[in-house]
Structure formats: C-alpha cells, structure tokens
Amino acid sequence: MAQRAQRPNRYKIKEACSVKAVVIKGAGDIAVVDGDQQALQEGQVRVAVQRVGLCGTDFSLAQGQLGLNTFPVTPGHEVVGVVRESRSPHWAEGDPVALDPLLNCGSCEACRSGHPQWCNQVGVIGVVQEGGLQEELVLGAQHWVRIPDAVSLRDAVLLEPTHVVSTVLSTVNWESIGDLLILGTGALGLLLIRVLTYLAPHTTVWAYDPVPERLDRAVQASARRWSPQGAPAVDVVIDGVGAAASADMAAQAIRPGGHIVVYGVPKPDTAVTTAALLFRKNVQVTYSRLYSHDFSQAVAWIESGWVQASAVVSDELTLDQVPPFLREKRWLLPQRWGKAVVVVREEG
Ligand SMILES: [Zn+2]
Ligand SMILES: [Zn+2]
C-alpha cells in the first residue's frame, strides 16, 4: 500500500461514543446492543460502517450451525464504510474502504506462497472475531481494501462476494467452453451469470435453482433455464449448493472430460454418491474455498460496471431489523431472491 496524502472529507460522519452492534449470543438468540467505543491502537483504523451484506455464512452462524466460532459474536464479513480515524499512514479520514475479512497466520508455507486459504489457522472476521454488523469497526490497516472514487458503496458492498466469484472462475480454463451450468442462483449465482456475460460472451450459460423466483431472476440476467431432460451435456458445472442433490445433478449434466467446480459449502454429513459416474466420465472436480488477499480483480470488475447492486440485492434492512430477519429465517422467503444488505448508515 502506498502512503496517501490527506484529502478533503468525502463523507461527513457524525461523532459517536457508544456503538450499536448486532450480537449473536447463541443459536437463534440475536439482539442489537449498545457497546463502548473501542480504543484505537497504533496501526489500526476506525471505520464508520455503512453497508453490510448478509450471506449463507451469517445464516448458519445465527442458527449455531457453522461450528467454527464461539458465542457471543458480531457477524458481518461483507463490509463497506468510510475511515473515521486512522493511526496508520496508509489510510486517511474519509477514505472509502471494504473489509478483507480473511485471517491467517502469515508465516506458514501456505501463507508465504500466497495461499492463505490453505493456512491451518485460516478464519474469517465476522465468524471467529467481531465483524461489521455494528456502527464502527476497528481493525489493523491491512484488513481494508481501497474502493475507487468512482464506485458507490452501494455497489462496493458486493466486493467480497465478487472476490469469491473471481476466485471460482479463475479455476476454469476458458478455452473451448461452449456450455456452462450454474447450480444455485442466489446472489452468488446471479453475480456469476452477470460476470460471465462479459468474461465469456460466447459461452452458453445455463442455470438451475429449485426456487422458481430465483431461477426467473437468473433467466432475466441472460441465463438459459436448464432441466435434466433435453439439455446438452455441459463442459463446466459451477455448483454453488454443495449438497448431495446438486452433486448428483452436476454428475449427470457434465460431459466426459468436463470440469465441476464446487464453491457451495457442503454440510458435514453431505454424502456424494456419484464417484462411479464421475470416474467413468473422467471428470475433474475442484473445491473452491475462500480466496487470497488480492482483491484487485474484484475491484476492477466492480469499477468497470460488471457488478451492480441492482442486479443482485433484493432487500435492504436496518440494523434493528437484523435480529428478527435472522431469527425468523426470512432469507428463505421466495420473494427474497437475492442478497439482503444491512444499511447501517446512509451514504452522503
Ligand atoms: Zn459472505
Ligand atoms: Zn499460515
């Protein structure tokens, strides 16, 4: 990170002493509480949180099903905001930033070779330590990614999911990909479809989701409706579900010699029974978990307009609306076809 000169405030943030935060105390036990403002140490940055995207990780966490954390914890790993106070030469008050939530040891073989997701101490801010569903978040300077001036925070809240998508797509060899099938068309599936219209304009993108409202969105976003009957065998399947049913569908749909990429998180008891079929078809399978600290591809895609909130975000909530949303599992309602974003503080 290059040292940057102080510049005039782009955003005026009112001062706060107590900090409102969503706290998950245990499975289904979720509240908004007022906490004390955290002291700022040397090298740290205080960010006024503006928007936080929710995803399946948060939903599993709220139900106590993630198994990676201790309670209580404040969720939120898809975070954008504005620097309120900096004790780092790399950041200045008013800088718009997004969170890089990946935690790793930094010194093992995997970390030193640029694969922090292989570190045996890998973790995510908002899961193993306090995340961004609060009015401000204090973290070391290295946890923040610069948002270009031309990008709105409304779009930039999709930076982390876009980084997931760019990591998934980086595993695919794009030479001679005629047909590609996306399983699961929630927010990440929609992001994939959107990016592929630019990245692979000559590839036919098929999509499947058991929720009709979601599949309709995928079709509106230019994907073709896939069904097991009459559809061609595809060169690549991208499985965002990670369940036994999606693994089965992928094994049926893939052509011999094809490539299946699984980025949906399998449940601990998910049993994949398609080994014989995959072997016969000589299929390559990649599991894509997490990502590196290099968000530059995702930043570039958002900056060039490939990724826009209007195509992916279906709901906006306030901080106070988060506990009932999580408790009542409202993300399962079919009309919530995309991502829910918590507007902690309005821009401007
Ligand atoms: Zn997420
Ligand atoms: Zn490590």
Automatic annotation (TrEMBL):
Q: Which InterPro entries match?
A: ADH-like_C, ADH-like_N, GroES-like_sf, NAD(P)-bd_dom_sf, Zn_alcohol_dh
Name the UniProt key words of this record, in alphabetical order. Oxidoreductase
Q: Which Pfam family name is an example for this entry? A: ADH_zinc_N
- Annotated Alcohol dehydrogenase-like N-terminal domain ranges read 42-149
Which GO molecular-function terms appear in the entry?
Answer: oxidoreductase activity
Q: Which residues form the Alcohol dehydrogenase-like C-terminal domain?
A: 233-303
- Show the PANTHER family listed in the entry: L-THREONINE 3-DEHYDROGENASE
Q: What is this protein called?
A: Enoyl reductase (ER) domain-containing protein
Give the organism the record lists: Sulfobacillus acidophilus
